[in-house]
Amino acid sequence: MTDKNQSPKHMSLEEFRSAGYETIDWLVDYMADIEKRPISAKVSPGDIKNILPKSVPEHGETYSKILGDMQKTIVPGLTLWQHPGFYGYFAANSSPPAILADLLSTGLGVQGMLWATGPSVTELEIHVLDLIIDLCGLPKKFRSTGTGGGVIQDSASSATLCAVIAARKRAGGNKVIKRLRAYISTQAHSSVEKDLLIVGLVPNQIRKVKTNSDQSMSTQDLEELINEDLSLGLIPFFVVGTVGTTSSGAIDDVKRISHIASKADAWVHVDAAWAGSAAVCPEYRYLLDGLDLVDSYVFNPHKWLLTNFDCSVFFVADSKPLTEALSIVPEYLKNSASETGEVVDYRDWQVPLGRRFRSLKLWFVLRSYGVQGLRAYIRQHIEAATYFEKEIEKFKNLTLATPRSLSLVCFRHVESNKKSEILLKQLNSTGKVLLTHTIIDGMYIIRVAVGGTYTTKLHLRQLVTLIKEYVN
Ligand code: PLP
């Protein structure tokens, strides 16, 4: 028997409609009940893989069966990032308008690599990024109407990689690569170091700048390192300032960093992956003071601005070094629109060629929540974190490890790292919350990153009650 002459069996459009309703129904029930589920999976390595069917079925199965199996086998092995008791890492926001827009994007199935392959994909992205500039009070030089512009990347890691690639180009490219030096603080995100290694730097070309007592970059150390390297004939080409470090939410002095970097004409990139969303509120824009002096900037609406992963917004003051570094035009991609020079071809703004229609979900979020809704969202989290910070101060056995940064609270047990570690394990073992840790200056610190889509002060109250139960 051979299947050679059989044509593939697609879902009919009516079956697709009904499966779509079934899927949304399932998702709505899941979201409505999420707080009743344990936030961390109680599984061991291999448990999930072992219960999965061992081969591809010979004949296609019904959608209901596949969905049912997912519920039975996959869901129990998930960590519930959308649970309101999720305080680990930084949040990975999701919201109904963004979910639906992502579904539309997938359903439309378009590729926005060139303007010509989907004019609306490119033009909506340009438009949405200009809207983000207004929404967050970002410098005008990032607007599409000047030499700069914005692009949506899959992650802050990729955006920073593009910044490094553009900076390397501006500094002279591969010809001078051995003389290039980059400057990042010891608290910069690990992705920055990874990006620098990807472009061909070796570890001793990455200068680790010391931090101040509040974990922000020591600009004095930065200046000394840059001066030293200049005197050795080296090329300081890239400096990263972080607004809201991952460990403790420290804020680097972007203005001072930019002034120092300008003496060496080094590219300044600001990574505000998490904290950048707070700029929707005018009262937090001071954190980005000096942004008008930098070359590139990234923040992640997929962390704290209600837009499902993946959505990192990346802005450059001058797009030329980026597109010059990333543009290669094979015959099969040539088209008359590109040749006019009047359109943006986003494939030249990123590493991959193909690109999803990501701006749709951000556009839906901006329109669904509006300026006031987005501000209320950020403020509600910061208010909840402020409440939590005050509660921590009341515990005689606990202390704040660093001052609260926006909605991130870091605390520890006063007696020992071991006691902090045990407390963290006990809290997580309840299945009601998920917290993560960091180590700063040898101290084990519990991080509470408030930022879940449905996390409110009520959930922080519940966390305080849990802590009271376990701390000793
Ligand atoms: N930069 C900072 C400051 C972060 O906190 C993170 C992730 O938490 C990243 C970069 C990496 O983000 P992404 O996962 O979008 O690459």
Largest sheet: 7 strands, mixed
Report the mean per-residue pLDDT as an integer: 96
SS-based class:
alpha/beta
Figure out the total of helices.
15
Task: Tell me the distance between the termini.
Answer: 70 Å
- Strand proportion, as a percent range, falls in 5-15%
Q: What order do the SSEs take from the amino end to the carboxyl end, as H and E?
A: HHHHHEHEHEHEHEEHEHHHEEHEEH
- The strand line-up of the biggest sheet is 1-7-6-5-4-2-3
Bound molecules: pyridoxal-5'-phosphate
Helix content: 40-55%
Point out poorly predicted stretches: none
Q: Would you report the number of β strands?
A: 11
Principal-axis shape: globular
Describe the structure.
This protein has 472 residues and is of the alpha/beta class. It is built from 15 helices and 11 strands. Strands 1-7-6-5-4-2-3 form a 7-stranded mixed β-sheet, with helices on both faces. A 4-stranded antiparallel β-sheet has the order 8-9-11-10. Strand 2 (180-185), helix 7 (190-198) and strand 3 form a beta-alpha-beta unit. The radius of gyration is 24 Å and the shape is globular. Bound molecules: pyridoxal-5'-phosphate. Pyridoxal-5'-phosphate is lined by residues 89-90, 155-157, 189, 191, 242, 245-246, 271, 273-274, 300, 312.
